[in-house]
Specification:
about 220 residues, alpha+beta, 2 domains, five-stranded antiparallel sheet, binds 2-acetamido-2-deoxy-beta-D-glucopyranose, manganese, secreted, metal-binding, signal
């Protein structure tokens, strides 16, 4: 009995510790911390330091960064993501938020990628977008979003967006639960890292030949 209950305590404690590790950005300790983004900071903290709060103005809390579509012309996948960040919107520093404008060309994709530090909720504002994510049991959840429809991508999971329309661009807006969500594209992380992952790893991992690896690297600009 005593043994069982202490085992239970250990299990609960380790579960609690696990849950505590899955947490969003730390809470701010003040109303705001307008990012001081001048170059060559002499000390480094988790985020950006604040300017003197007395110097904060309304302009620190507004941006037009997302007002215009990003150009999808030069991107091989046909997408462009424009983000708010501590430079174009210094007032968001420490607030645990990012807004992203996602423009996708006709027949373009945002290829499978993940955000290690943020969950994402997206709303389709123009066109129609096939979205999906894969969970850690390798199960796919997918949906076609029409204008006004939303979808949520849980933190860290691989997801994609695809504009199947061959004639019209699509546009979605996403909110992310970190001021620095981070993005890893699965294909680029695997095939175009610097330095490169050795070919023998990729031939085994993807069950393909050496020529396949080289061709994929070349196609992806690696
Ligand atoms: C920042 O540091 C770099 C390298 O030390 C230097 O070249 C640059 O001029 C500095 N910039 C400013 C604004 O001080
Ligand atoms: C995204 O769009 C902006 C604005 O048109 C452009 O300056 C930038 O180069 C584009 N980025 C990519 C990766 O195509």
């Amino acid at each position: 009995m005593g043994c069982n209950s202490s085992l239970l305590h250990i299990l609960l404690l380790s579960l609690t510790l696990q849950l505590l590790r899955v947490k969003p950005d730390p809470d701010p300790l003040q109303d705001y911390c307008v990012a001081d983004t001048k170059p060559n900071q002499t000390f480094f903290i988790n985020g950006a330091p604040c300017i003197d709060p007395e110097l904060a103005t309304s302009s620190h809390f507004t941006t037009s960064a997302l007002s215009k579509p990003g150009s999808t012309k030069t991107n091989p996948f046909g997408f462009n993501v424009t983000l708010t960040n501590k430079v174009n919107l210094p007032g968001l520093n420490t607030l645990g938020l990012t807004l992203a404008r996602v423009d996708i060309a006709e027949n373009g994709i945002v290829p499978p990628h993940s955000h290690p530090r943020a969950s994402e909720v997206t709303i389709c504002l123009q066109g129609s977008v096939l979205v999906g994510f894969v969970d850690t049991s390798n199960r796919l959840f997918t949906q076609t979003l029409n204008e006004g429809d939303s979808f949520v991508f849980p933190k860290g999971l691989i997801h994609f967006l695809y504009n199947r329309d061959l004639n019209h661009p699509a546009f979605a807006l996403s909110g992310l639960s970190s001021q620095n969500p981070g993005t890893q594209l699965a294909a680029l992380a695997s095939f175009t890292s610097k330095p490169a992952i050795p070919n023998e790893i990729l031939t085994k991992a993807f069950q393909i030949s050496d020529q396949d690896v080289n061709r994929i690297r070349k196609n992806l600009g690696g």
